[in-house]
Predict the structure.
Amino acid sequence: MPELPEVETVRRQLLPLLRGQRIRKMALTAPGLLKNCEPAFFESALQGQTIVNLHRRGKYLIWECRDLFPVFHLGMSGIFLKDRARSLYPQHIHMSLELENGGEVFYQDFRRFGKIWLYREWPQIANLGIDPIEETPDLADFAGLLARKKQNVKLFLMDQSQIAGIGNIYASEILFEAAISPERNTASLDPAETARLYRYMLEVLNAAIERFGTTYSAYQTVSGESGENQNFLKVYQRNGQPCVRCGAIIEKSTLGNRSTFFCPDCQL
DNA sequence: TCTGACCTGCGA
DNA sequence: TCGCAGGTCAGA
């Protein structure tokens, strides 16, 4: 379940492999992943292109080539690998890339929730809110976002049109650190709570990036390693275990059709 | 605003 | 064998 820290880890690890390299061959074997062109066009258009840079906005990974911009959303289980032998699901490798320097990169996605687009110009991704790491808002801007729409605070954090990049794992962890119940409405947060939410949104995301993301289910880094952040989760998937802050038992509930994990005693 | 569909691996 | 996991989007 790649969220912002996982996609940023992928971007940082792919960058030295791809930047400045020319694509010798691109092969795509799952046509359903492609959303705005045909596989044959995708493959031929990218052949011979030089990759200039890699960018990330929210959970989207944007490859900047000389004349084209392939865009990847990793969905629930998409990963990039530099070594096919490290794949846990080689039957689900759906894209292979050969570079002129002999390097290779593979895209694996066993659930096939990932999506790929090809644009001729810098892609304008519709309805994408502020990226909290790339375009960090100041506290006043963040408070303005919160005030703009009265909604559940966890759904606000996960609303990609408001804050781009946070998914279910980090929303639960941010709310725990901020000691705010996932049941709260954004309109009910006082200035101190808003400041805590802002502070821990940045701290939780940055810490997860430093730890190469959270490996839960299929996520692997580009080199095939696990992330490390799963060892630091305080509520996600910890229902039934004691809260590290107050000792109460972590609970699990459903909110917006998603599992939500929280401490009933110290998240108010 | 909410629900179901997409998809497959995994654990009960 | 079945339910769950979850990001996104279409449709109700």
The longest strand of chain A covers residues 51-57. The mean pLDDT of chain A is 93.
